[in-house]
C-alpha cells in the first residue's frame, strides 16, 4: 500500500491575540477535585468518622499541597527573584514581553549551568530561567522561551502542570500541558520559529515529579522534544 504523505503543518495565525484561558484545564481540575472529595467521603465512612469531615480534611490537605507546588519548585531549583539591574540581558527581554502580555509575572534566575526554564505560581505567576540559559542563549532564543512561559501562565497550562505534579497518579487527567499548540502560539507572537526550535533543542530535558513545570520534559503531560521541533520546523 502506498504511504500517505504527512499532513502539512498548521500555520499560526500571526494576528491572533494570545490565549487567555484553557477550558480543558478547568474541567480536568474540577474532575480531579470531585474524585478526591468522593475518595475522602468513602475513607471517612470506612474509619467511622463523619463523611463530610473526612472529605473536607482530604481536600484541605491536598489543596495546601497544590497551592505550594510552585513555591517548592522554585526553592528546590534555588531560584531567586532577579534584582533590578543584576541581569540586564534577560531583564530587558522579560520586561518588554511581560508588559505586552500583561501576565503579572515575576522573573527568577536559578544557578543551573544547563539551559532550563520553568513556569509556575508562587503567590504570583513566576517564570524562572537558569544561569546557563541567561549566559548561553541569544536574545531571540531567550525571547522565545519567555514568551512560551508567559503564554502558559495566561492559558492555564501552568496551573494544569502544577496539578499534574500534585496528583501524579492523575497526571493524564491534566492532558497535554506542553506541545506543538503551545509552541505555535509562542512563535505566533515572536514571528521567528527558528529561535524556539533552537531553544528547545538546546534546553535540558527535565525529569521527575516537577518535570511538567519545565520548558522541555520527559513526562506524559509533555509532547516529546523531537515531535515539537518537527512541528515548528516547517512553519
- Output the number of helix runs: 10
Largest sheet: 4 strands, mixed
Shape: elongated
Helix content: 40-55%
Number of β-strand runs: 4
Mean pLDDT: 82
Cα separation of the termini: 29 Å
Radius of gyration: 19 Å
Proportion of residues in extended strands: 5-15%
From N to C, what is the helix and strand string?
Answer: HHHEHEEEHHHHHH
Ranges where pLDDT stays below 50 over 5 or more residues in a row are 20-26
Q: Strand arrangement, largest sheet?
A: 1-2-4-3
Specify the structural class. alpha+beta
Which terms summarize this structure?
single chain, 235 residues, alpha+beta, 4-stranded mixed sheet, 4 strands, 54% helix, 9% strand, elongated
Topology:
Layout: H1 23-47, H2 51-67, H3 69-77, E1 80-81, H4 88-101, E2 106-110, E3 117-122, E4 124-130, H5 131-136, H6 139-155, H7 157-166, H8 180-190, H9 193-202, H10 225-233
What does the model show?
The chain has 235 residues and is α+β, with helices and mostly antiparallel strands. The chain is 54% helix and 9% strand. It is built from ten helices and four strands; from the N terminus they run αααβαβββαααααα. It has helices spanning 23-47, 51-67, 69-77, 88-101, 131-136, 139-155, 157-166, 180-190, 193-202, 225-233; strands at 80-81, 106-110, 117-122, 124-130. The radius of gyration is 19 Å and the shape is elongated.
